[in-house]
Structures are given as C-alpha cells and as structure tokens.
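Write out the 3D structure for:
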Amino acid sequence: MLFNSFSYAVFLLFAFILFWTFARHLRIALLILLACSYFFYGSWNAKYLGLILFVTALNFLVGMLLAREERRILRKWYLALGVVGSLGVLAVFKYYNFFANEISRAIELLQIPFYVRQIDIILPVGISFYTFQSLSYTIDVYRRKLEPCRSFLNFALFVSFFPQLVAGPIVRASELLPQISTKRSYSRDKISHGLYMILKGLAKKIIIADYLALHLVDNVFGDPRAYGGLTVLCAIYGYAFQIYGDFSGYTDIAIGSARILGFELPINFDAPYKSKNLREFWQRWHISLSTWLRDYLYISLGGSRRGNARTYVNLLITMFLGGLWHGAAYTFVLWGLLHGFALAVTRFAQRNLGLSENSSRNPVVSFLKTAFTFHIVCLGWVIFRAEKISDVPVLLSGLLNRGDWSSGVSYGVMLVLGLSFVTHFCPRKLNDFVENGFVHQSAAVQGLLLALSLALFNLLSSAASPFIYFQF
C-alpha cells in the first residue's frame, strides 16, 4: 500500500474516522491504531507480521528485564540479547545472501568444492527502520536515559505506527511513547497542517521525483554513452532532486498522516542542498538516521574523545556502517566511505586550516562552499544510484561525451529541474507563508484545493511508483 496510491487515501480516511470516533477511550483508540498499523504492514506481505511482532516482543521483554536488574554484568547480557536478536533478524533477511554469495565466490577462486547455499527470501519492507527504532529504545533503557514502557500495547504501537513504519523517520521512544500514552485532542489546525504536509509530499513525489526519474534519470543512467555530457550532468542533478523529492516527500506524507491523527513526528530533512560542508549536510539530510548513528554508534566508538586520528577512524566506521545499513551492495559501502572520508576532511579543515562554518560572511564564498558541497553529494549519489561499482566510471566519463544538449533534456525536464532548484533554495518564510495560507482557509476551500491537487497528481501519474527508500 503505497503512500501515493488511492488505496492509502481510503485507508487513511478509514483510520482517521475510526481513531477520532473512539479518541476519548484511549485504550480502544490505541488498539484501533495498532490494528490499522498491522493491516498496513500486512498489506505488503502478511507473512512478515510475525517478524515485526518478534522484534517488538524481544525489545519489550529486554526493556522489562533491564528495569528490574541492577547487576552490571547481567544488564550487559540483557542488552546483548536485544542487540544480537534484533540485528540478527536484520542480518539474515538483508545480508545473508550477499555474504553467502561473496564467500562462495572466494571459495571458488581457491578451487575448493564447497558452496554456501543461499535462501529464498524477500526483504521485509521497513525492517531496517523498525529494527533501529526498537534498538534505540533498548539502548536508552540500558543507559538509564529512559524508563521502560510497561504497556505492551503502547510499545507495539511505538514500533509499528504506520505513518513512519516503512521508511521513517526513525523516532525515539522519548518522543513518541509519551504521545501514545496521552489522549489526543482533536485540532482543526493540526489536521489542516497535516493535510498540507501530505499534499506537499505528494507534490515532491509525483511532480518532481517521478517525473525526473521517468523523463531523464532512468534513461541516462541506463545508457550514459547515448547522451551528451550536459545531458549526463543534468541527469546527475536530476537524481539528486529525485531522491530528495522522493524521500523527503515520503517523510512529509508520514508527518502529515501522523499529524491528522494527533501525533507529531520529527522533521527528517531541512533543505540539505543548502549545506556549506558535509557535516552540515548530515545535520539536514535523513536527520533521524544521522542522529541515530551519532548517538548509538559514533559516540559508542569513542566519538571525538580519543584524539584526532581515532576520531577520523570513528567517522569512517560510522559512515561505512551507515552505507551498509542501506543495503548489501558494494556501491552503498563505497558511498558511505566517501561520506566518511569527506566528513573527516571537513573536520580536519575546520580544526587545522581555520575553515570554520562561519569563517566567512562573504556571499560569494558561501555560494562557492554550497556549490562545492552539492557536487560532492552528487558524486555520492552517482555511486548510490549505480547498480554496480563498475557503472560509476562509465557514468562519470559520460560527462565528457559530445552530443546535442537538447537530445535528452526536454523543456518539461528543464522546467521541473528549475522548479526543484527554486523551491529547494527559496527562503523558508515562503513555505511558511504558503502553508499558513492553506491552513487559514475554510474547510470548503481546503477540500476544493485538496480535490484539485489530487486530480492533478492523478493526471501526472499513470500509476503509483514505489518510494526509493522502501527497499531499505
């Protein structure tokens, strides 16, 4: 059930009516939301409902055990149980076949008659997200930063809340559990803001991401030798805005869906291509993952407390694993290492060359920093998008191709690319102005705008296409 499908619109309306009908009865309302969440997840593949129930039950049990245990050694064993159990599930479904294949290839080179058998499994939707979300709860309870949840119903909803279940944001228990345990109050303003976020997300997905993918990115990345260098460059820019529109569009719909049900989810994007360095980029891009990696991996490795050399190593390890989190492929690993290296270089430059984030207020210098950072990020996206590493030099060498500029870039593509740049780099106040303009309209006007927008989206999209981050 895709966010950009008619079936999701019907489902969300059904959940909205049921939830607010019984909102005064908290337990019933939560049961309704949990049932809706499991129905939503089961619509992808009902067989994997058992998987999310296992991860939920495991981390709930570990949280309760940690709450009752004071002995340090046993607390560590309980934490290990939660971490190994959760990551073990993730490893089997996401990484087993990859490593089995690589081990078999290595053994074949040694001419040893042995083959590691692969298993026929489909990657469960959202497993990386709800695994990390569950683990953050367990680790916070272990660190005594969070009181354990005593209600299995509340905890199950925390893990499986459908707006953010499939592709985030990865919400901390300290942010969502208090909302779950409190009665929600109906607010027309919140619902209006939620509807605006849903429309905004659909616009990013359909008008920008899907259009650029269909009319530019997929064609050029599929055969870069057939296009001129400027067209290849436009395709690289196009993918940067495709993946941003696709992923941030999903997040906007998730935030909007949660908001009309009375829940607030954290922002996950903050105009990342405005960043002046890679450190700032990761403070603006996929914020819930970058803060998760910082708080539960980078700091656990020692962070910046053990000298510069160790700090650089910690950055590389963190981003290496961040790349691997996206999938079992060398392209994701290389993408993560590129960002880890760039973060290490950024830190070195800021500490040793006087290139701090606020080292210059000169608008020209600021522009050059932003442009340089954007192109480093685009280089990373080329690696990220590639099917295999050998495709990367082929695509990059395509920048040197001679050819007709107009052969691969239509006026429609140029218009959407321009729209992507303008909307991304426009002042935040303009977005706030548009949002407030929608929110302050009457219900009738909002309904009309909603209907017209959905009709336009339907015309522009012949079929609902999956979100990129659903595969992770």
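DSSP finds 18 helices and no strands in the chain.
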